[in-house]
Amino acid sequence: MIDVIRDKVKELLDSGEIKGFLGLVRKNGHIAPHLFQQGDDLSLMSLGDDKVAGDARYPLNKFLINLAKAYPEETFAVLVRGCDDRGLQTLYTWNQLNPKKVVPVGITCPQELADACECAKPFPAVITAGECAQPGTPRSVAAVDALVMSERFSYWMDEFVKCIKCYGCSNVCPMCFCNECTLKCNDLVKGGELPPEIPVFHHTRAMHMVGRCIDCGLCEEACPSNIPLRTLYKKVGSIMEEQFDFTTGAVRGQRSPLNKIDFAEGRK
Amino acid sequence: MLKFSGIDEARLKASWVSSAEAPELVHEFTSFIKELRELGPSPLRADYRRELV
């Protein structure tokens, strides 16, 4: 699979279509994000599979936003999985990236990763390399739903109480692009308190993930306290699906139903 | 989301009351306070932090 990606990137770079390819590199025994430019050694490229598939993923779209801001005239290619692709569509919709300046290089996720992520669409819209895996079966949300109310409450409170308020979840989140963050506002979230006010802190973030969370799961991977954040945001996503038939990032340009006020004003 | 977190949904109420409908607002408040009294103290009042120390 990586050879196909390498050839594609080489072709894109040589044709001058792109200024650089934002992907991953294996260097000094670690996998890290890297911007490949013309003349760079593509043999060190990695797809984020260290020991098991997809265990070294990064919020590449987040870095892409910064790149695009610094070099607004340039076009960049970016390595995308199914989740990153949903992220790109959503970032286009939110005017954080210009689709004319982004060339997605799509890879599929293997079945084991799709199952582990319970991913609804483990492949991007345009696939450069790889075979489509079956969607993973959702389990985590159902497992919490199966608990009785009092058990649910203590389950979540026992998880939330571990929070060290490191902001890892929002720092890694490719969909967290607000200039001002509610969770960093001292009037709303008091500084110097550990854990933060629970469950309000985590519920606030969950509410802000409505129509934004693309279910990439990086938050849960980044969390040093292993709080099952993904399950929380999966629930948010499933409510959006049930109530509004809306899946974040599924259709380009499709706005969150909570932005309907724009439609009412005829701005669309 | 409250239900998913094991918090009784009846503890949250949203009502649409116009600024011209003062009696309506008072009614909403008094009836909601009554409902909350029946539900008893909130589970959120328990101090979860103390268990850590």
Give the N-to-C terminal Cα separation of chain B. Answer: 29 Å
Counting helices, strands and paired strands, the structural category of chain A is alpha/beta
Summarize the amount of helix of chain A as a percent range.
25-40%
Q: Globular, elongated, flat, extended or rod-shaped: what is the shape of chain A?
A: globular
Summarize the helix and strand pattern of chain B as letters: H
> What's the alpha carbon Rg of chain A, rounded to whole Å?
19 Å
Q: What is the CA-based Rg of chain B, rounded?
A: 15 Å
Query: What form of chain B results from the Cα inertia axes?
Result: elongated
Measured between the Cα atoms of the first and last residue of chain A, the distance is 41 Å
N-to-C SSE string of chain A, H for helix and E for strand: HEEEHEHEHHHHHHHH
Task: Kindly name the structural category of chain B.
Answer: mainly alpha
Number of strands of chain B: 0
Strand content of chain B: under 5%
Largest interface: A-B, 26 and 13 residues
Beta-strand portion of chain A reads 5-15%
Largest sheet of chain B: none
How large is the count of helical segments of chain B? Answer: 1
- Uncertain runs of chain B with pLDDT below 50, 5 residues or more? none
Report on this model:
The complex is a heterodimer of chains A (268) and B (53). With 268 residues, chain A is an alpha/beta fold. Chain A has two domains: 2-117, no CATH class; 140-261, no CATH class. In chain A, 38% of the residues lie in helices and 10% in strands. Chain A is built from eleven helices and five strands. Chain A has helices spanning 2-14, 60-70, 82-93, 111-117, 140-145, 149-160, 168-172, 200-208, 218-222, 229-244, 260-264, and strands spanning 20-27, 30-36, 45-46, 76-80, 102-106. In chain A, strands 1, 2, 3, 4 and 5 form a five-stranded mixed sheet that branches. In chain A, strand 4 (76-80), helix 3 (82-93) and strand 5 form a beta-alpha-beta unit. Chain A starts with a helix and ends with a helix. Chain B is mainly α. Chain B has one helix at 22-39. Chain B has one helix and no strands. At the A-B interface, helix 5, helix 6, helix 8 and helix 10 of A face loops of B.
